[in-house]
């Protein structure tokens, strides 16, 4: 299943080569990566298993099915993948029901993009139910569209979510700026041909040709994102 938003015709750049901004959610705009880990640890403790801290870097930023499969295999827990997926999503949904904290700089960046009418999409590996709850904190009005992990056949680290978002916005992937916090997300965006700025959250993101890495979302503004497209920024490691 995918979004029902029709594909728009490619837009001409107006005053800048930047055509759209595509943003990850967990760990990038909202400080929820720790929430996911807390839920995973609690659920597996109830199943009689202790999660090792080293597992965290493996599951961070990944689609639910991949992360859950890894944890089942790593622990030997006696639970079906579908059952575990539902359980984790339900627990997480309950946890964020009262709102989620935004990452430093997120509110300001979203307001700036909205003020300049920059087409913006939320592209997440999280399921639709989770995204809709988080949008209560982020503001649904800040996004022209959202892409959820359970609405597309192949999610991150495949390029499909970012290719879909660009197409729906009528933008060329190479003229889209992506903000991500995990290597999984960065891999997806780079494979789609987008220009990427990485803001690592839980795990470090290694240097790579053409990859820009910053320490905080507070370093990212509209001018910075436009510079990614025009090549004004050198990769930062």
TrEMBL record:
Keyword Electron transport attributed? no
Gene3D superfamilies tied to this protein: HAD superfamily/HAD-like, Putative phosphatase, domain 2
Q: Does the keyword Transmembrane apply?
A: no
Q: Which GO terms describe its molecular function?
A: hydrolase activity
Per UniProt, which keywords does this protein have? Answer: Hydrolase
The protein, known as: HAD family hydrolase
Native organism is Streptomyces nondiastaticus
